[in-house]
Amino acid sequence: MPAPDRNATLIGIAAAFGSQASMNLGASVAKHLFPVVGAFGMTALRVALAAVLLMALRRPWRRRVPRALLPALIAYGAMLGLMNLLIYQAFARIPLGIATGIEVIGPLGLVLAASRRRADFVWLAAAVCGLVLLLPLRAHDRLDPVGIAFALGAAGCWALYIIYGKRVSATLGRDAVAWGMLVSVTFTLPVGLAASGTAMLSPSVLATGLAIAALSSALPYSLEMEAMRRVPAAVFGILVSASPAVAALAGFVVLGEVLSPLQWCAILCIITAAAGSALSATRRV
């Protein structure tokens, strides 16, 4: 590999991991505020401030949104907001690494559902194995089943978010995220205000919320774009599949969340399934 290509690849890999680290650091800091404003309030604050940041950075109003695209854009924004509401409810009940591992099953299932190759059933089996290991099926399991249900709901929303995201991004490009986040505000903010009241409007909470919005949205989205420009799709998919492990590490360092060996095995199964399916999908293209 020529030196410039090697440097570009290394920068892309660093950007992908930087994106994951930033996003999960933001989630870890957000979890610290749950006792103050609740998971709903924190979600509303993050989405609203992220929308302000993205609208200011992208200024998407400079390009008109086609009327025919509005239903897909509204659905995209709704899935984005609902995904955030559900995953923060999961974070409030179960460790970050486990919640993220379950959430990854959404896009993974989308890839496997479109597959017709026998080899991909191996990745499906690995994903199912990981999920079964995480489910509280044994009497001594301590995972909150409600938290798992919220994470599964977020996984479903992530899959739909991808489907509608492809439709709107083909026309709007990077502006789709800003518009989608703005749509999300229309229902996440009322939910947050109803659940947390004026507590989420205090100056200290707003300042922390702005930092979380930057860490969880503006910075990681920008780093992901840089990574996708510099590394092949297969490599990017494999890097993204490591997000549950990065989330578990962030949860341990920032929140002191310790996973059992069995839970780590479950996360490894899901990471293997996500990486394998990403690699297989790229080979089919």
Secondary-structure topology with pairs:
Elements: H1 3-32, H2 34-58, H3 70-91, H4 96-103, H5 105-113, H6 120-134, H7 145-172, H8 175-196, H9 203-230, H10 233-240, H11 243-255, H12 261-284
Would you give an account of this structure?
The protein is an all-alpha fold and 285 residues long. It has 12 helices and no strands. It has helices spanning 3-32, 34-58, 70-91, 96-103, 105-113, 120-134, 145-172, 175-196, 203-230, 233-240, 243-255, 261-284. α2 crosses α9 (203-230) and α3 (70-91) packs across α8 (175-196). It is globular, with a radius of gyration of 19 Å. The two termini are 23 Å apart.
Question: What proportion strand?
Answer: under 5%
Total E-strand runs:
0
* Helix-strand string: HHHHHHHHHHHH
Helix content: over 70%
Major sheet description: none
Mean pLDDT: 81
Low-confidence stretches: none
Total helical elements:
12
Structural class: mainly alpha
Question: Termini distance?
Answer: 23 Å
